[in-house]
Write a structure and sequence with these properties.
Distance between the termini: 37 Å
Order of helices and strands: EHHEEEEEHEEHHHEHHEEHH
CATH class of the largest domain: Mainly Beta
Strand content: 15-25%
Strand order of the largest sheet: 1-2-8-4
CATH architecture of the largest domain: Sandwich
Number of helices: 10
CATH topology of the largest domain: Jelly Rolls
Number of domains: 2
Length: 261
């Protein structure tokens, strides 16, 4: 699937990305990126990478990739929320891995030439830098500090998957909902979440009526506000106190990935 021309004609777009990603006006590399992982790579690697990347957009509910194909392109989200799901093409479930502006899609697979074992779903509209996987691998071999940042991120992603599977079996829906709202806020860098109850029920593996009840309890406690397709976090500390123990056991994300007011 061709989603637009990259700035470097030497690199191919990824056949595994299926949705028509629309190229946006290219931001000068000198302005950097809002993606936390790219910033952790360091200025030199980030600038070289962005010069050969394209800023693309994706729509809500788009399926950006399906498993089984090599990852020729790695996505570094600037905004929006993506989920990697191994169990179903219909969308993320209890095993879904959330990826926002703190990380990347296809990093491990692109560096190893391994086929993606998951499908990638857009949970909300957003934008991402599409970078040639060969170039990412080359730059990480060249810069040990950037490579360490990549390995730390991949370790956090693996821990997230193990934690999500255990959490679904051990903790209450109320506590898991509180944790998910906090993590979604951190992934997107915002206290205002574009998120429906239908989507929450799918991710948490709960009935929609149950999610409605739990959301109502959080609203009544003045912890969140809700509207049509949106949730606003009003009291992060109260949400932390209501979250399950996975929250405190969570491998901490970099401070720079925390949500902005």
């Amino acid at each position: 699937m061709e989603f637009g021309q990259t700035q470097s004609a030497d690199h191919r777009t990824a056949a595994s990305f299926l949705a028509p990603l629309a190229p946006r006006a290219h931001r000068p590399a000198a302005e950097g990126s809002d993606n936390v992982l790219l910033r952790e790579f360091g200025q030199a690697v980030q600038v070289r990478l962005l010069r050969s990347s394209t800023l693309v957009t994706f729509s809500k509910d788009a399926v950006l990739a399906k498993g089984g194909a090599p990852m020729e392109t790695i996505l570094f989200p600037e905004s929006g929320m993506l989920a990697l799901c191994t169990s179903s093409d219909k969308g993320p479930g209890l095993d879904g891995l959330l990826v926002g502006r703190e990380g990347a899609v296809g990093l491990a697979e692109g560096m190893s030439d391994a086929p993606a074992p998951w499908s990638c779903h857009a949970l909300s509209a957003g934008a991402a830098w599409a970078a040639p996987a060969e170039l990412v691998a080359e730059l990480l071999r060249w810069d040990p500090a950037a490579a360490n940042a990549a390995w730390r991120y991949m370790a956090r992603l693996g821990a997230q998957q193990h934690r999500a599977l255990a959490c679904g079996a051990l903790h209450s829906g109320y506590a898991r909902l509180a944790r998910l709202l906090l993590e979604w806020s951190e992934h997107t860098g915002s206290e205002r979440l574009t998120l429906t109850q239908e989507r929450l029920s799918m991710i948490l593996g709960l009935r929609r009526t149950t999610v409605t009840l739990l959301m109502g309890q959080l609203v009544e406690a003045d912890v969140i506000d809700t509207g049509r397709g949106r949730i606003v976090l009003r009291d992060r500390q109260a949400l932390e106190e209501r979250s399950c123990s996975c929250r405190t056991a969570q491998v901490s994300a970099p401070a720079s990935s925390r949500a902005r007011p």
